[in-house]
Amino acid sequence: MLEIGSMVNGKYRVLREIGHGGMSVVYMAIDEKANKTWAIKEVRKDGVLDFEAVRQGLAVETEMLKRLRHPNLPSIVDVIEDDEILLIVMDYVEGNALSKELTEHGAQPQEKVVEWAKQLCDVLGYLHSRTPAIIYRDMKPSNIMLKPNGQIVLIDFGTAREYKDKNLADTTCLGTVGYAAPEQFGGMGQTDARTDIYGLGATLYHLLTGNNPSQPPYQIKPIRSINTSLSNGLEKIVEKCTQRDPDERYKSCAELMYDLEHYDEIDDQHKKRQRAKVMLFAVSLVVSLASLASGITTQALYVNQQNSTYDARMSDAAQEQRNLSERMDIYRECISMAGKQGEADPFLKMIELYEQYDSNGQPSDIYKFESSERNDMQSLIYSQSNELKARGNYAEVCYQMGVTTWLYYYGESGYCGSDNGSYDSMISSYTWFKECMDEIERTNMDFKNKNLAEIYYKLSKFAKDENSIGLDGSGAEAYSSIYTDLCSMVKKVNNQTPIMQLRVYDYATYLMYKRTANFQQAGKSERNLTDLCNQIEEAMDGITVASDAEQELYDRIMARYNTDGIMGLKETIHYQYNNGAELTEENTAGGNE
Amino acid sequence: MEFIASASTDIGNVKKTNQDSLNVRVISSSAGNMVFAVLCDGMGGLAKGEVASATVLTAFRNWSNEVLPKLCVSGIDDDVIREEWTKLARECNEKIKIYGKRSACNLGTTLTAMLLTEERYYIVNVGDTRAYEIFNYVAVLTKDQTVVAREVELGNLTPEQAETDPRRSVLLQCIGSSDVVYPEFFFGETKKGAVYMLCSDGFRHEITTDDIFYYFKPDRMLDSESMRVGELTLIELNKQREERDNISVITVKTY
Known about the structure:
Chain A is α+β, with helices and mostly antiparallel strands. Chain A has helices at about 50-65, 100-105, 110-130, 160-165, 175, 195-210, 230-240, 255-260, 265-290, 295-315, 325-335, 345-355, 370-385, 385-390, 395-410, 425-445, 450-465, 475-490, 500-515, 515-520, 525-540, 550-560, 570-580, 585-590, and strands spanning about 5-10, 10-20, 25-30, 35-45, 75-80, 85-90, 95, 145, 150-155, 170-175, 370, 410, 415. Chain A starts with 6 loop residues before the first strand and ends in a 5-residue tail after the last helix. Helices cover about 35% and strands about 30% of the residues of chain B. In chain B, helix 1 packs antiparallel against helix 3 (about 80-100) and helix 7 (about 210-215) packs antiparallel against helix 8.
């Protein structure tokens, strides 16, 4: 084993162990001269049955791997070997393995899984198209890293191929072979692209259902028998990927990719058929109602019973003497109650409770919406999205998630914007406002907070893209329109709660202070900006803060107006418009704060 | 009721180590005579498989020394055994997993353990080691936890296809490599004048039910000497038929 702190090849200092598998250990190491972090994988002699065979196989394979370049693969930069040891130096990938996401959050939202599946399909397709084709053979959540930017990277690549073809005589355990396709156990023909497609299918199954196919009941069942809200199209895709007979699977990643890109169309066809069935049912229902009037009372009675159970449980959950987890459980029960699925109230109440209670389940004056709570709500909402949509409640629930995230999201760096100037909460609220707007558009519904939702959506999108706006030359347009949005938002929040006001004022003043030149370039006059500054300053006068968090925000905004020693907001604007340098390339791009 | 017990193991034709661990004891207790038998088939790279099988064997043997005497006083029933042995199997699983992590290798073991009292048999099973009851028939008391057994049960494979399926040595779970172990339990009445047998998969791949019946039928198993001969004969038969695995068997005669 490599020693922590030791130098490898006179170049890489080993910092710590970051993981290990059956035959290898992975370390984090630093190239001190270049100040760059690398991962070093050590294939250990005592970890494999026939080290010599493995080593020779690896030497050929790593040579080839060094030439691979793909955004979803770590690059191999160096291979170091002697009689005892084989070291592969490659990109250090920041992030978490999907297996960790599964442990922490269970089943993943299907939109995300499809996004990952496409990336995996892309990288597998790339590998299969090399000459000779490279078969990965070890697809499983623990081999897939999720980077903070949402990109995934296939790791643990380049271990010995020989090792992965199991020896028939040796007993092995499902837990160690993972999602291996039947043909990987030998005797059933060669492994090829379809072997990886099986592994990918089994991986998708695990991600979508949270059920590990190598644990009881050791089966890949139709995914909707586990979660009815999952897509029918995806169910078919997973089923086709994981056929026992390779001939019945997708033949190539390209074929699979096509279906992944159109999975919701497969859904639509399904829904149309379902709708036709419902119509047919409705017709026969009319007929039977005509002849069976007495049936109506029975049905009505049944509905009444459902209502009363639901109402009773909802008021049980509202009782404050119960503890948080108990109340949450009752709301969950209401969410899944037959005949009541898709009701918005239990969701809205849960969000509210999460705001008011801290992570230890105690009521708190300081409202925090912590990331674990956010994740919890997120998976619940995603799993019930079809039911919510069916009742026309999805937009409202998403809107409330968006607003709560915007106001109270408490991420790793604390509240949004606390000192470090990050706008995490605004950025994380984007997903929800987008879902909300999409739903409003899809259904063409009359949503009561539509205007507000739209501005929230635009602001959060702007916050998300702020650092990249302008890179494609659209900066002027973006800043011109965000100015309009800021003005209407400042007006709209005027009669809202202090925290809502402060969040908006904070972001508006921050942008004007930090991005004055961008507004100037967008054709906004000094007067435009000063007017907005004054409006906010006036509104600030009328705010009474009620908590430390609000006080902190309040102080930060006021500090921007302050002229002690440094230039205040209005002075900065004045200076930019009268003496300001031309906007340089770097400023346009946003740069780093 | 009286018991006689015997056990044999062989490294087999091919392997460099014997990774099976087994033990059987006849016990006289306040609750009457009983037999406690454990057979574990270890697996893992190089010389690590027997670490796993020995760990589990030792844990169960210690249990029979420390806990079983107390149960003889307080009473043995299905629930108590289920609870005790599940706990034991899971503890071993965690222990072996940690060992595997430290030494960076995968290892694990199957488990078949049997407590035979004068009234009842209690069997726990993980993996593909088996327990049999031989009377004027040969009955398998356990259910293999293998991928192919599962596929047969689901109707995806016929028993014939399962024999030659490439996955026939892939276990659904084993102690030491599974996230959580779910042992299966089998309970029933102890039959007088019968033979109970525990064996590793290496013992049964190459021989037939008829072979087993012929050599292990109760009227052939008269004393420990004849039982031992029967065991060695079948082990030899296995080797002649080119079995590649370690071969282990425990037999118990009731009378």
